[in-house]
């Protein structure tokens, strides 16, 4: 009798998963993770992947971002064939690289090249968080350094979009060295008085936020982008203080003087053109 009583009790409660109910076929429709709206993918793409209802900025791939910036069909990719080795023989790293290459059709987490924006020739770099979370391995660092050197040499402005989880752990100290290498290349650019515009998108964290992405002559960011070095929990435990709710958002950084402007995506190209116009005299930078 007592045994029966126990047996009748349900061991586990069933919690209906809202996700199961609202699952929608991937491809045709997308669900906004912020406001929950269901958006036709084609409409979303027309609006540069920004939710019309709540202005949530969906992640953009590097090719999409480049297409949204440059004047028509004027982009020449550089160093497209550079790809990471596995210098530390890190378990599964080679396989993960191979699968990301296949998934993204890219060799690394950044695309660099030359293009014109509003008629201004520029060097452009765009990170892509689909590839190893946009982490900065030696190839990402090398491509940024080469792009900066090219910008110095040609005296073209350099526009760099960051989206990154930080250093790439599978490349250990070689990944961390990219912070110094990219910073040195940007310093040379600075001495040559060539403009560097850094645009931080969601998320820009770790070693990327602590090196090249914070070194712009002008630092812009997309709305609500997560930007920071260490995670909130780590900092709270270290400083033993509760951090503000908007801590590590683009808006918080703007308020505290670490950014020059938060620019919605639909205004990005025009804002960049304005910045380039202001810094270009008679077709050459001076
Ligand atoms: Zn939304």
From TrEMBL:
Group of enzyme by EC: transferase
Cofactor(s) essential for the protein: Zn(2+)
Reaction(s) catalysed by this chain's protein: N(6)-carboxybiotinyl-L-lysyl-[protein] + acetyl-CoA = N(6)-biotinyl-L-lysyl-[protein] + malonyl-CoA
Listed InterPro entries: AcCoA_carboxyl_beta, Acetyl_CoA_COase_Trfase_b_su, ClpP/crotonase-like_dom_sf, COA_CT_N, Znf-ACC
Subcellular location: Cytoplasm
Pathway: Lipid metabolism; malonyl-CoA biosynthesis; malonyl-CoA from acetyl-CoA: step 1/1
Pfam family, one: Carboxyl_trans
C4-type ZnF: 32-54
GO CC entries: acetyl-CoA carboxylase complex
SUPFAM superfamilies, per the entry: ClpP/crotonase
Keyword Zinc-finger: yes
GO biological process: fatty acid biosynthetic process; malonyl-CoA biosynthetic process
Annotated binding of Zn(2+), by residue: 32, 35, 51, 54
Coiled-coil residue windows: none
Cofactor note as given: Binds 1 zinc ion per subunit.
Record's function text: Component of the acetyl coenzyme A carboxylase (ACC) complex. Biotin carboxylase (BC) catalyzes the carboxylation of biotin on its carrier protein (BCCP) and then the CO(2) group is transferred by the transcarboxylase to acetyl-CoA to form malonyl-CoA.
Family statement drawn from the similarity comment of this UniProt entry: Belongs to the AccD/PCCB family.
Subunit details: Acetyl-CoA carboxylase is a heterohexamer composed of biotin carboxyl carrier protein (AccB), biotin carboxylase (AccC) and two subunits each of ACCase subunit alpha (AccA) and ACCase subunit beta (AccD).
Protein name (database record): Acetyl-coenzyme A carboxylase carboxyl transferase subunit beta
Species for this entry: Polycladospora coralii
